[in-house]
Amino acid sequence: MTSPVRLALLGCGTVGSDVVRLLHEQSEDLAARIGAPLEIAGIAVRRIGRDRGDLPVDPALFTTDALGLIKRDDVDVVVEVVGGIEPARGWLVEALRAGKSVVTANKALLAEDGAALHDAAAEGGADLYYEASVAGAIPLLRPLRESLHGDRITRVTGIVNGTTNFILSAMDATGAGFAEALEEATELGYAEADPTADVEGFDAAAKAAILASLAFHTRVTAADVHREGITEVTAADVASAKAMGCTIKLLCIAARGVDAEGRETVNVRVHPAMIPLTHPLASVGDAFNAVFVEADAAGQLMFYGRGAGGAPTASAVLGDVVAVARNRLAGVHAASESAYADLPVRPMGEALTRYHISLDVADRPGVLAGVAGVFARHEVSIATVRQGPAGGDAELVIVTHVAPDAALAATVGELRGLDIVRSVTSVLRVEGGA
Length: 434
What we know:
The protein has 14 helices and 17 strands. By secondary structure, it is of the alpha/beta class. Strands 7, 8, 9, 10, 11, 12, 13, 14, 15, 16 and 17 form an eleven-stranded mixed sheet that branches.
């Protein structure tokens, strides 16, 4: 019988425990698919004595010495589900340089310093797989890396954070404010006790960097991604979106473009935006994820499913484990990182966007002309204007044509200083042709 492929599992929390369970429950099928059984050589954890319920694993496999486990000669593949930057980066670089394939779900590390991992994999002749780092069980990264490798991807637009999608969906469905929807998400287990990484867009920004790197053959880090969260989205914003036939989603957007000299660039951003109800992403509710890919030859593609949770993420991890184990038995390696394009990342101010702006203004003659003058000074064209009463003042709702984001932001800044503008009540970007 073929010798088993032996795994070092780093981390045994929610995802790690489900990896162990799936390995146990599907052991025969996995062995048949690979051509050899999978065995756990050891599990690195912070505390050995922690109660892990009825986890089907020999307690003797647990260790607190992750680096020692990685260095063992009987370890073939390292599976990392600990998260964070350090010490995970050091562990994985050590494993890859030693020729041991790595499967990781660590989006933060990949987004901050994926280059170190890819370079170590190339040095050691090892595989680096990370399907579980973005959108859970949704098969997404491998299609970008392999299936669409012969095409030219032009744009990736996605809902990649289940917590924020649940919150915005609840606000849309019930008219609740952000704080109320966040409280509900926390009670139902969709939001962490500290939801900052989700609601401020850090989680989505890391995923956006990974998607952009694969889609555009360019190393993109989280620092390159313009990031805004959803904490400033109000019930009034949601109502205004409904009035326009739109809904609000936290989007990650990665797109090709050209700069003023005509050179090709990429722009990567995460922010809340209005999208029309006719857009495929508009119907993605609850804690689900979806990513909309546009390519020259393939056209429009959409990937949809559960983007988080122990079992979905473990499913993606096991899929990668099967791939690297089969490669190991066949004596081959997956294609190395493709970063040949090395496109410059265009700053957010140069990105072409559209704004939806709501203003409370003085109800007197000449106001509309004064407001329009501000847009003209910044060379921003107005697409639509809707005027209505707002107490003793009046409300102006303006949607712009596409313009550089810096010009739109400067327009809003000047509007805030006009004596005829009582307040700027809402500013949201508009995507998808609304």
